[in-house]
Amino acid sequence: MGTDSSRPGSLGDRAPEQVLAELRTTLFASLQRSDQRLRAEQYVRGLLAAEGRKTLRNIAAQIGGATARQSVHHFISDSSWEWRPVRQALARHTERLLEPQAWVVRPTVIPKAGVHSVGVEPRFLPDLGQTVNSQQAYGAWMVSGTHAVPVDWRLLLTESWLADAERRRGAGIPATVRTATPEDCVSQLAPRAGGESPGRVPVVVNVDGLDAAECARRLESLDAPLLMRVDPGTRLRADGSALQGYSERTTTAGQLLEAVKRLRRPTEWTLTRDDRRDTVATTVPVLLPRPPRDRAGRPDGNPWRPMRLIGEWAGGERRQARLWLTDATDLPIGALLRLTRLTAVADRDARRVADQVGMRDFVGRSFQGWHRHVTLASAAHLAVVMAGTEAFPATRATAAAPEVADGPADTAGAA
Q1: Among 92, 125, 98, CA closest to 109
Q2: Other CB atoms closer than 10 Å to residue 285's CB: what's the count?
Q3: Whether the predicted pLDDT of 370 surpasses 90
Q4: What is the C-alpha to C-alpha distance for residues 214 and 180, in angstroms, rounded to an integer?
Q5: Which residues are in the Transposase IS701-like DDE domain (predicted)?
């Protein structure tokens, strides 16, 4: 097609075969055997060609029929190839293509009918209003104003899996894997994101429902601006040194925004060059408490971390505000709002691309198999971003999906 594959402007219009050939040479070079490189490419092709759920049976049907099913299962669940170098190559290639404006760390909830898939346990899902068996994962996404690609993953594993020797052995969970909280998963993904991406690309994290103070403590060493989406109950207080006339008593983020509502202002900002947005927003200097175990190790012993609380009322002041905390004290409100909306770009591409290439469809019991599957599904996701949703049967139905809306970002955790 005569396009420069290294430029973001060429995304979405590449020939599918050209894309797959490029991914074969850039992403799978770490696989030592030629048959493994071939299987990896075939698996990605199967994810892109299969319609409906991307089960191993369905994927095998795209690349060789019933005779391929056993080899596909072995390649994903029982083979010895290492998925980490593939993810590292995926991140490097995505960065070159996408020129990301932010790294977004977001949750993914994967409902399951059974109880045997690795990491499955009962969880309450607010959107459904009920407790269901599910896996909980966190993904790190490279995001521009127009595209989002997942490049790393963590699967949440609790004591119910790691302390049970039989379950652990059955899932093949390595001895090095330890019990993790959601805060652990977020911190493991975000520092890697901020450290690997040049130019101090901001890290944007959804910690709504998590311990915001604990997440902030873990992410304080990032050499990049941090923005965290928080819930209204997050405990903090106004920074009296920068905000005169307001109580410095500890309160909640929601109550503080209500107390300073006279500071709300109409704000215009841009998501992309041709996409201008109007909203109502305010930014308030605040102090976030540091966990006690962190205070002793700080030279000044300061129990409070200076941050900015952002409140945004997209669609009018009567709607519930989006709440964010950031340490980016030098960025104007419009630039911060643009960064926060990149979560909606990731939410959209999770629905119209990641879900369609089977990111949440792995049904095996293997820990390594889950990681290999989401690694190759992430590669398939990048292929769609490079060639366009109309280029592959798996995503063709979502080609007309709407662009990023000016409403609340999706926090349901759908892949």
Answers
A1: 125
A2: 15
A3: yes
A4: 14
A5: 27-281
Is this model's pTM higher than 0.70 or not? yes
Residue 348 lies inside a defined structural domain of this protein: yes
- The reply to whether 163 falls in a domain is yes
Residue type, 163: A
Longest dimension (CA), the chain: 74
Q: Apex CA 130: angle with CA 125 and CA 134, to 5°?
A: 50
Residue 415 lies in a domain: no
What's the count of helices (H) and strands (E) in the chain, helices before strands? 13, 12
Whether the CA torsion 197, 201, 205, 211 is positive or negative: it is: positive
Q: Using an 8 Å Cβ cutoff, are 98 and 142 in contact?
A: yes
**Domain around 373:** 8-398
Per the CB < 8 A criterion, the answer to whether 227 and 203 are in contact is: yes
Query: For residues 415 and 10, which has the higher predicted lDDT (pLDDT)?
Result: 10
Rounded CA-CA distance 308/225 in Å is 12
Q: Is residue 406 part of a domain?
A: no
Measured between alpha carbons, how far is 234 from 226 in angstroms, rounded to an integer?
17
Domain count, the chain: 1
Instruction: Tell me the one-letter amino acid at 308.
Output: R
31-45, 80-94, 327-341: least confidently modelled range: 327-341
pLDDT for the residue 135: 95
> What 3-state class would DSSP assign to 299?
coil
